[in-house]
Amino acid sequence: MKYNGRIDNLNRIVVSDPSYKKEIWCRYEIDNLNEKDWIVNLDINHKIEKIKDFDVGYIEFSILIKKDNDVCNLTKEGISYLNDINLKEYQIGMDTACIALGINDKAKKIIQSHDEWQPSCSIRTGTDGYFGEVKEGKDSNNNLCFLFISGCIDDDMNYEIDYIKDYLVNQFEIKDFQKETNEFEL
Fold first, then answer.
1. What's the CA angle centered on 144, arms 72 and 137, to 5 degrees?
2. Using a CB cutoff of 8 Å and minimum separation of 24, what contacts does 51-56 make?
3. Whole-angstrom Cα distance, residue 20 to residue 149?
4. CA atoms within 13 A on the CB side of 41
5. How high is the pLDDT of residue 182?
6. Distance CA 30, CA 53 (A)
7. What is the residue-averaged pLDDT of the chain?
8. Rounded-to-integer distance, Cα 21 and Cα 23, Å
């Protein structure tokens, strides 16, 4: 399911196992952005993958936060973006079987919770290791143009898609959030 919305104010973003401090390589944090009125595209789905004789279920999501619609868009393969964008990729890891994502004051709470075990600002993932990735797109002047965040949550956590969707809307302070429709769904 695809959704759209906007973020009024964007100053800080954190995507991390909340136990990690700033110097850990497998987390993402950016601060002092001072941006306003960014566009958000969210794609969230339940998937089942056959691995050997087992069906493995999970909720997969990707969230694209962008300055404007001309810079990049979600595709089935991830994102498409302008040729002059410099892309940097970050792998996101976990050691406490949880992940926390958020902006502004929510990001600050994530940073301050590093001594807590699976704090309320996080989502339990069911696994340690690799959670997902962040792709950071900057223009030739080193200005942030977009962030693409993707990850998945194991079905063993018994989360509904709506719970994960509501967590992301809250943590990213998304306004005017609505399901994307196309002419075939009407």
1. 45
2. 56/154, 56/155
3. 18
4. 19
5. 66
6. 42
7. 91
8. 6
Identity of residue 69: N
3-state SS track over the chain: CEEEEEEEEECCEEEECCCCCCCCCCCEEECCCCEEEEEEEEEEEEEEEEECCEEEEEEEEEEEEECCCCCEEEECCEEEECCCCEEEEEEEEECCCEEEEEEHHHHHHHHHCCCCCCCCCCEECCCCEEEEEEEEEECCCCCEEEEEEEEEEEHHHCCCHHHHHHHHHHHCCEEEEEECCCCCCC
Could you tell me whether strands 78-81 and 72-75 are parallel, antiparallel, or unpaired per DSSP bridges? antiparallel
Q: Could you tell me the strand order of the sheet in which 129-138 lies?
A: 86-94, 129-138, 144-154, 54-66, 35-51, 2-10, 174-179
pLDDT, tens only, 21-77:
988 999 999 999 999 999 999 999 999 888 888 888 889 999 999 999 888 888 877
- 10, 103 in Cβ contact below 8 A? yes
Entry pTM: 0.91
Mean pLDDT of 158-176: 95
What pLDDT shows up at residue 186?
Answer: 42
Binned at pLDDT 50, 70 and 90, residue 163 comes out as very high
